[in-house]
Specification:
This protein is α+β, with helices and mostly antiparallel strands. It has a 5-stranded mixed β-sheet, with helices on one face.
């Protein structure tokens, strides 16, 4: 909009200059060629500074001064006085394209040139000079006000356009940020859902796996004893039944833990209880060495308990162990947990879901997990965790 207003005003000035200069050349018979030459020079310079130099204040001011000099020469060569109409239209260029101080200087010089020409035209008819001077001054004031209002309108339009452009940019940026937030939210939801699924899977695997392994060992023992020692076989079946109830209770407790995001109240007691139950229900020999002065956080307690449960399950299910040894000791800057059995061992470790879950839990706590095994030499798990404050 501002560019259109400026182009329209300069186009009007350009047409006015062309008509006035043509009339001046037409009314002058003696210096017509020179007037046409100067008119062409004026229009050329006007075109240059109006459409090419208007954003460069110093160049535009110099070019406008050249216009005034050329107009002064044209007025001096014009015997008719028609060139006086050039003066007021030069006001528009000064006000629209220059700063206030430069525009004021050019308008004063322009008015002085017009007054001088008016004096020369009315020489010998001084009675008309004062009215014509007042009319000329009124014309300059009127043109100055008109172009000042136009410039103010243009500046307001520029501010509105800038504000609108900034608003559009902010709107686009806000939309981009909103899309980024939506993507991040979806990713967070997906990650949270995946974490919840993995957590539930670990809880089910740890609880159900250990319970079923213990029950399976007791059922196998009762199967071997049923023909030769029915009382001990019944005892094993009773223990298996109790273990099923215990496992069901543990599953319900795991569900409550998942719902309420709570953990075991005393992980050290829970670990000792788990080892005692394992010894009572499966008949394996358990050696336990736990430093009860180690302060454990909720995270550390959960990790150690689930790793112990997974290790015992593997020892019973895969290793066919008859003895396990568990230790939890304090080390500098951390703690060390180990679980070893005398089972069959293996030549190579192929991590299943349980081992991968242990690895994931330990890594989340910035710890390390190491597995050692050889064929016929048992299986051991060693975990190091950084110092945890309770």
């Amino acid at each position: 909009m501002t560019l259109n207003v400026r182009i329209i005003m300069h186009t009007v000035n350009y047409i006015a200059f062309c008509i006035t200069l043509f009339a001046v050349s037409l009314l002058s018979s003696q210096a017509r060629f020179l007037l046409l030459l100067f008119s062409f020079g004026f229009l050329s310079n006007y075109t240059v500074h109006t459409f090419l130099l208007y954003e460069k204040q110093a160049a535009c001011l110099f070019s406008s001064l050249v216009d005034l000099v050329v107009v002064g020469v044209i007025m001096a060569m014009d015997p008719s006085g028609a060139s006086l109409f050039l003066g007021p239209f030069l006001i528009g260029d000064a006000i629209l394209d220059l700063h206030a101080q430069s525009a004021t200087l050019l308008v004063c010089v322009d008015f002085g040139i017009c007054v001088t020409k008016l004096f020369n035209v009315l020489h010998g008819r001084m009675v008309w000079f004062l009215p014509c001077l007042l009319l000329c001054a009124a014309a300059f004031v009127l043109f100055s006000l008109i172009f000042m209002l136009i410039k103010r309108l243009r500046m307001q339009n520029e501010r509105l356009e800038n504000a609108l452009r900034d608003s559009m940019v902010e709107k686009v940026q806000a939309q981009a940020r909103r899309r980024e937030l939506e993507v991040a939210y979806k990713q967070a939801v997906q990650a949270s859902a995946a974490d919840a699924r993995n957590r539930i899977a670990r809880e089910i695997h740890d609880t159900v796996g250990h319970t079923l392994t213990t029950v399976l060992v007791e059922l196998e023992a009762s199967h071997r004893l049923i023909g030769r020692d029915s009382s001990r076989a019944m005892e094993k079946l009773t223990l298996a039944q109790e273990q099923v109830r215990t496992g069901l209770h543990a599953i319900r407790a795991s569900v409550r833990i998942l719902e309420e995001d709570k953990s075991l109240l005393d992980p050290l007691n829970a670990m000792e209880t788990l080892l005692q139950d394992c010894a009572a229900h499966t008949g394996i020999t358990v050696t336990c060495r736990i430093d009860r002065n180690i302060p454990l956080s909720k995270q550390a307690g959960d990790i150690l308990y689930t790793c112990l449960r997974e290790g015992l399950t593997n020892s019973l299910r895969h290793g066919k162990s008859t003895a396990v040894e568990c230790a939890l000791v304090r080390e500098e800057n951390g703690l060390r947990f180990s679980l070893s059995d005398n089972g069959a061992g293996a030549t190579a470790v192929s991590p299943g879901f349980g081992i991968r879950a242990m690895q994931s839990r330990v890594e989340q706590a910035n710890g390390s997990l190491r597995i050692q095994t050889e064929k016929g030499k048992g299986f051991s798990i060693r975990i190091w965790l950084p110092a945890f404050a309770s």
